[in-house]
Every structure is written in C-alpha cells, then in structure tokens.
Design brief:
One of its GO terms (biological process) is base-excision repair. The chain has 14 helices and eight strands. The chain is of the alpha+beta class and about 350 residues long. Strands 1, 4, 5, 6 and 7 form a five-stranded mixed beta sheet that branches. The chain has a three-stranded antiparallel beta sheet with strand order 3-2-8, with no helix packed on it. β6 and β7 form a beta hairpin.
Length: about 350
C-alpha cells in the first residue's frame, strides 16, 4: 500500500468514525492543543477530559497560566499523576510569555525546546492546531505502524524508534494533516488496540503485514520486564489540639516535586526525637495506621502513616512560608498534593471530627 492510498484510507475512516467532539478539538488553538497533548501523555482520553475542562477554564491563555501560582496549577492537576507535566507546563508558559510574547511559536525546533515537549508532542501541537505537516509518533501510532509494517522489537529501542519515525514521515500527507493525525491516534486507541485489535474495522487491514501473518499480538515487541523495586517511607502526620495539621513542601524535583505532603521521617530514626530535632516540636505518638502502597511507573512506595500530637506552645518553632504550613481542612483544595497524601489528609480530618463528636 503506497503512502497516498494509506492516507486516503485513514482519512475516509476518520470522516466516518473518528472522534470530532473532544473539547480540545473545539477552537483548536496552539495553547489548547498544547495543554491537551501534555495531559494526554501516558493518560487516557476519558481521564483527561474533566481535568482539561477545569484547567483551560481557569487558565484560558498562556499568560494566565504563566502568571498563576504553581500551587494552584498543581492543585488542578492533583489526581492526574506525573506531576512533572504540570510543573513543565507552568515553566514553559513563563518562557513563552518572556521570550515569545505570550504566543506559541510555529517553528517546531522552538516548540520542542519547551520543557516537557518532545518531538512527537511538538509535531502533534503544530499538526492538530495549524495543519502544519509534522509526523507524530505517540504510543497509539507506534503500535499501529509496528503492526502495519511488522517492525520487530520494542519501540523504546533506538533502532526500532528510528524505523517507526521513517514510516510516520512517509505516510503523513500534505493535506488535511490535522484530521490525519487525529485519525491515526483514534485508530490506534479504538481499533488497533493493545490487547484486542478489531481488524475487521481497520481501513488498513488489507495492507497490514502483521494481520496477513495472523501475528497482530507479536507487534510491537514487549518492553523487557523487570520487577519494580519497593521503597518505604514514614509520613509523620503532625496535628495540634486545635486541628491544624503540618504540611511540608517537597523539593522541586523528584517524586511529587513541588507538591505539599507530610514530613517524612527516616525509617531508622525515632519519631519523637526526629520531630524534636528537625521540627522543634515535642510530640506524642498516636496509634499507628495501616500502611498503604502507591505504585509509580518505576517503583512501589510503601507509606506508613504515623499520627502524632504536638504541643501547641512549641508550634511556632515550625515557621510557615515556602517550606511548611499549618492548615485546617478548608485549606486543602487550594494546595497541590498527590492523591495518597490527600486521602490521608481526608482520613485524618474525618478522624479528628469524629473524635470531637464523641467528646462533645
């Protein structure tokens, strides 16, 4: 199947079956498409849609995003995961404001230079919003092309990726590029699915080498398996009798970078001594809670919550500001925090309210 026929079949399928009503397809500006493409990295459309709507309603332009407080950006991102994406969006918006007049450039090299934007994302931004002819190679398109051309090997390998980029460049048409790009993403997500590809509905089935050989599930090659390592931490949930709970901002890089969390005590340390030495707080340990496990893409994190009560008279030893904050439950929504932390906070707040109800 030559490139012209390939593109024609893809576009005919899109006209009949492609997705045309996603929120970022309505008024597809460079900014709106950029936000959607960052959110869609490693995240399914159905999950992204409500986050996207809230995000662009609050930050309708590059300038409003650039001028926003990072905490608010992270709080709107909470639950979507991969928080570096939110930090990169915020940082890139500042760059676009300061260096490009608050506008997204049309040069793919400049777009790709933005934090969090790789070659495929840059191509998708320009193709979907302006129709610029740029090949795109997201996860769905990698799978589709791997099967169509029976490209052996895992796409994370440099040689396999280079072959897929060559195919993507070859098949990208010169007209209706935005529709073609969306169609390829949709075909991969809806038809050429990872586990149950529905080849009966695929417009490319007659030219697909994997289908002809009845080997659809052999492509793309699997990522080499490795067991995820397990890390452990203790989160010290410090509260006062007046119900304020201590939160600490995490470092800007690393796990949950820039988000608010509970202070973490080394496993080998005595919690009471550690609170005195590091936080300047005299505390009494409460009954321990059950541990919980949170799984990242590259490791498991076992969290042991340690609730403690601090003496109110020494609470001022922990200075509020950039690093620490004492908050009550009505502050939670304005603070960016990871889902496990928010769940623990909610449980701790409920526990405090129930305790007060029992003692009234």
């Amino acid at each position: 199947m030559n490139a012209d026929e390939f593109g024609q079949r893809v576009l005919e399928w899109f006209d009949a079956h492609g997705r045309k009503h996603l929120p970022w397809q309505q008024n597809p500006t460079l900014y709106r498409v950029w936000v959607s493409e960052i959110m869609l990295q490693q995240t399914q459309v159905v999950t992204v849609v409500p986050y996207y709507r809230r995000f662009v309603e609050r930050f309708p332009s590059i300038r409003t995003l650039a001028e926003a407080d990072l905490d608010e950006v992270l709080s709107l991102w909470a639950g979507l995961g991969y928080y570096a994406r939110a930090r990169n969006l915020h940082r890139a918006a500042g760059i676009l404001r300061d260096r490009h007049g608050g506008e997204m450039p049309l040069d793919i090299a400049l777009v790709q230079a933005l934090p969090g934007v790789g070659r495929s994302t840059a191509g998708a931004i320009l193709a979907l919003s302006t129709g610029q002819r740029q090949p795109v190679l997201d996860g769905n398109i990698k799978r589709l092309l791997s099967r169509f051309a029976a490209v052996p090997g895992w796409p994370g390998q440099a040689s396999v990726l280079a072959r897929l980029w060559t195919l993507a460049e070859c098949y990208t048409p010169t007209e209706r590029v935005a529709d073609y790009t969306q169609a390829m993403m949709d075909l991969g997500a809806l038809v050429c699915a990872p586990r149950r590809p529905d080849c009966r509905l695929c417009p490319l089935a007659m030219g697909c080498v994997a289908h002809a050989q009845n080997r659809e599930m052999d492509f793309p090659g699997a990522k080499p398996r490795r067991d995820l390592p397990v890390r452990a931490t203790r989160m010290v949930m410090v509260r006062l009798a007046t119900r304020e709970i201590l939160l600490e901002r995490r470092p800007p890089v690393g796990v949950w970078g820039g988000l608010w969390s509970f202070p973490e005590c080394p496993l080998e340390a005595d919690v009471v001594d550690w609170c005195q030495e590091r936080l300047g707080l005299r505390v009494a340990i409460q009954p321990l809670w059950k541990s919980l496990r949170h799984t990242f893409s590259h490791f498991h994190l076992d969290i042991t919550p340690v609730p403690v009560i601090a003496e109110a008279e020494c609470a001022k030893a922990v200075l509020e500001g950039e690093r620490f904050v004492w908050y009550k439950s009505d502050d939670v929504q304005r603070l960016g925090m990871a889902v496990p932390v928010r769940l623990l906070l909610t449980a701790l707040t409920d526990d405090l309210l129930n305790y007060e109800d029992r003692n009234e």
